[in-house]
Amino acid sequence: MSRGGPTLYITGLGLSPRNITTEALEVMRLVDVVFLETYTSKGPVEFMNYLRSIRNDLILVSREDLENRNGDVIMRELERGHDAALLVFGDPMIATTHAAIAVIAKRHGFNVKIVNSVSIVCALLSQLGLSPYKLGSIATVTYPRMGVLSTRAYDVLGDNLKRGLHTILLLDIRDDEGFMSANEAVDILRRLEEERKLGIVNERLLVIYVARLGWVDHRIVVSTVNNVPDIGDTPHTIVIPGLLNPVEVDYLVHVLNASKDFVDNHQRFIHSLTVENK
Amino acid sequence: MSRGGPTLYITGLGLSPRNITTEALEVMRLVDVVFLETYTSKGPVEFMNYLRSIRNDLILVSREDLENRNGDVIMRELERGHDAALLVFGDPMIATTHAAIAVIAKRHGFNVKIVNSVSIVCALLSQLGLSPYKLGSIATVTYPRMGVLSTRAYDVLGDNLKRGLHTILLLDIRDDEGFMSANEAVDILRRLEEERKLGIVNERLLVIYVARLGWVDHRIVVSTVNNVPDIGDTPHTIVIPGLLNPVEVDYLVHVLNASKDFVDNHQRFIHSLTVENK
């Protein structure tokens, strides 16, 4: 496939087999060796089965392989003159690991190509009818590490709300590879509210709960932090809108079935936060 | 394809035929009528030819059709009991128009499905090795309208830089459907600098110029505002990084061939802006 030496294709898979692009399919079919990275994100069993139906010689790579051993397992194949693909769920963008592997391959003198796919970040905005121009900083709600709970997600949410911006909260993955649920994430946000007391995580806050985005059975439910809906299997994501324009309000009410009163109340709440800020 | 009444599939096409997902292909092949929206974004001739090779009965829809006539041309097909697809370049997220059409279809009692694809926003971060956690607000550099030049893109850039965040500047589309070039965008940013004098658009600012992202012949060149490189055909995009972490620096230098001195100088410049801000 490549000209002028071996190429590493860092290849996004999207959120489900339906998101796989014609380019990703071509790469998967034509390269000599295919690796799959399964620790910065994960695919449900159906996704794994789909990938194996295309390449049954798929090699799984761990955090250990990529970070502690500098991707040696991949570099060895390139050194043998083989083209290789490193498959990644979503778009290869969220994790620093992928950029680091691209740098290592380049320093070894190999070609690197990034194959884009559907990212959770853009897919969320699209499915929720939210304007990308009002997206605030993105954060991940994380489990306590060594007994310490990071306040970053809560602080980012507070900062975005005071600016009237939308917040995407991605949820952590446990070391045993389970995904954090929306319920766990809300518990953590409530604990942080008790600690930091910005007055943002309370019953007035409108929360959009999302499960299995990109799959046919995805669920999107608008609710509060006091009433976390049952949205079924993980992966889950949480989105908290800032100030909404009229089309965003209509989309929430008519397409996502949110109650108009509830949306109006949220608007007043966010407005009070942005006014305080001025 | 649909159950329980006609369905409108608002379907992203990605940035080039290589980005087309298996789901988008299925929708294009199976629905009764396929519309293509060509005014919020556009596809080069090769893209149009590719789409026509799949559906030679493709119907082009204008701003007039969707905004002034409330998508009547589409609603009529749904009323006849037909499933319809509205194809959109990129991911159907940037334009308010798409959310508005979804709301209209829902209010008429039809099903709406959003089919995600590769978005310019996420694809840029991915190709440039920039962390999505440090993405600031997104803006579009626009032509003067009725003789007035909007300062929004410049103000957003200033705000992001003072916060150390990355800025994606999308470029306008003219009414005659030509794309704004990087050269034109830089001219506009310089004019705004003269007017607003935040001291941000000057020779110390590192700018990443991108052309034809998503195509095999895409170009990515790191330079300054004083030296806009020839990056070939439009569409163009401009990305201005904020404070960079070590992997982002390595990616710029080793993968995108930026000069290390130049990157270090930019870091010092942004640092000085963020310090002033504190």
TrEMBL record, chains A, B:
Its EC number is 2.1.1.98. The keyword Transferase applies. It catalyses: 2-[(3S)-amino-3-carboxypropyl]-L-histidyl-[translation elongation factor 2] + 3 S-adenosyl-L-methionine = diphthine-[translation elongation factor 2] + 3 S-adenosyl-L-homocysteine + 3 H(+). Residues 7-227 form the Tetrapyrrole methylase domain. CDD domains: DHP5_DphB. Pathway: Protein modification; peptidyl-diphthamide biosynthesis. It comes from the Archaea. S-adenosyl-L-methionine binds at residues 15, 91, 94, 119-120, 171, 213, 236. Pfam families: TP_methylase (PF00590). It is an enzyme of class 2 (transferase). Belongs to the diphthine synthase family. NCBIfam families: dph5. This is Diphthine synthase. The lineage of its organism: Archaea, Thermoproteota, Thermoprotei, Thermoproteales, Thermoproteaceae.
